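Forwarding the complex inputs:
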Amino acid sequence: MSLWEYANPRKFMALSGAVLPFAAAGTAIALVVGLAWGFFFTPEDYRQGSTVKIIYIHVPSAMVAINCWLMMLVASLVWLIRRHHVSALAAKAAAPIGATMTVIALATGAIWGQPMWGTWWAWDPRLTSFLVLFLFYLGYMALWAAVDNPDTAAELTSVLCIVGSVFAVLSRYALVFWNQGLHQGASLSLDKEENVADVFYWPLLIAIAGFVGLFVTLLLVRTRTEVRARRLQALMARERMG
Amino acid sequence: MMPDLGKYATEVLSAYGVTLLLILALVLLTLRQSARTRRALRQVEAAHQAKANGLTAKTKPRNKETPQDG
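Prediction (whole assembly, two chains):
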């Protein structure tokens, strides 16, 4: 069985309908366990005090915001190369989720930054590239809304997505590229020495799983809605033509 | 039950508050949009089906009658 079979809307609807209840249940469990563990049962950091608890929402939301754009990039490339409608609709469906996660990351970062850095905002490479990524999300959604023909909209937004990917990568690796600014390095790493302390690590990992699950669940629901909306448009167009 | 958040209570609670509010809004909007589209599609599909059935009913008797007539 090939992966491309699921580019068929009927097969996608059948598979996603079967997966959705499990995705939603797993997401709810991971979010509740991760956030409750992090908020209620972890100690304060010796330097950051209780603000360290913001890590359980800031890091997962930032990760989802960046990786959502990369998922949109893959879906856009699939659309441009293979012309599968479901992939274009999945990219469209993902954008509002990514934009919301970017706002959460920016807002919680500002709230965390104020007591720790003494400022809500700095034109630091990572923060700036993240803000630009948010503007790209807005532009991407505006472009989908502005173009009437869905195929043309999919093509234009795919190109925009490819351009915006530069900022998705920059917001992830800005610290490596410029090695300056207020923002600290990655909280999680494959190198155990660079990770946060174990007491914060496990609840953070579960919270990340919860946010990723939330992204997948919402993406499935929204893509199913887009597939239905496309069929609705097709039927209405057929009726108009008589 | 509530942990002692010390002097940063406002910051921590507002960060969680903003996050939960935005996620809740996103989930509700997603579900509302999904329900609306599903309802609209069901109505249009039903109308479409009814129209197709009507056309079939109109054309079928004629097809049946043709051999007898001939």
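Helices of chain A lie at 9-40, 55-82, 85-117, 125-146, 150-178, 198-240.
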